[in-house]
Amino acid sequence: MSHKIKLDLNSSKSLEDLPNQKISISLGKKAVKNKKLISEKKTPSPNTAKNQIKPVVLDQQLFKQFKKETFQKIDLHGHTVDEAHKALSTYLKNNYNKKNLLHIVITGLGNKSDGDGFFTGKIRKQFPLWLETAFFQNLVKSYSPCKIQHGGLGAFYIKLRIKE
């Protein structure tokens, strides 16, 4: 059996037009052609690797670290969205500089139901969007909704990046 996947995407016919065509899938070693393509890729220089912003990861196993390690909390209840953003930015920047890695951010759930959705908290909805910005991506490594003992769905676990 060959160790290749071959599919002609440049064909003028769509896959629906070719129902009786063979499709082979292999789970073995890579073909020589693929190795050649991999070796032709340019490796980034060290300068560009440092300047790249790594996205914040949703880590469903993050809660395990909060059982063993010490952590700090910030409560954003009672803040407007802008006040909460500023408070969180300042808090995370200070703790990043102090090399405190584990934090719980309490956003709250909101107190109104909105049709089908119960969790209408403005800060809670904005929080994942904030993590997509460059400022937070430089500070935050991963996050996850909290387990019930740490605030449930109205709070998030945060792990900061290590300051170099």
Notable features of this structure?
alpha/beta; five-stranded mixed beta sheet; 5 strands; Ribosomal Protein S8, Chain: A, domain 1; 164 residues
Describe the structure.
By secondary structure, the chain is an alpha/beta fold. It has a domain at 53-160: Ribosomal Protein S8, Chain: A, domain 1 (2-Layer Sandwich), CATH 3.30.1370. The protein has helices at 32-40, 46-51, 63-68, 81-98, 122-130, 134-139; strands spanning 57-58, 72-75, 102-106, 140-145, 155-160. A five-stranded mixed beta sheet has the order 1-4-5-3-2. The longest helix is centred in the middle third of the chain and has 18 residues, at 81-98.
Topology, element by element:
Blueprint: H1 32-40, H2 46-51, E1 57-58, H3 63-68, E2 72-75, H4 81-98, E3 102-106, H5 122-130, H6 134-139, E4 140-145, E5 155-160
Parallel strand pairs: 1-4, 2-3
Antiparallel strand pairs: 3-5, 4-5
- Largest beta sheet: what is the strand line-up? 1-4-5-3-2
Number of strands: 5
Content of β-strand: 5-15%
Number of helices: 6
Q: What can be said about the biggest beta sheet?
A: 5 strands, mixed
CATH architecture of the domain at 53-160: 2-Layer Sandwich
What fold name goes in the CATH topology slot of the domain at 53-160?
A: Ribosomal Protein S8, Chain: A, domain 1
Could you provide a short overview of the structure?
The chain has 164 residues and is an alpha/beta fold. The protein has helices at 32-40, 46-51, 63-68, 81-98, 122-130, 134-139; strands at 57-58, 72-75, 102-106, 140-145, 155-160.
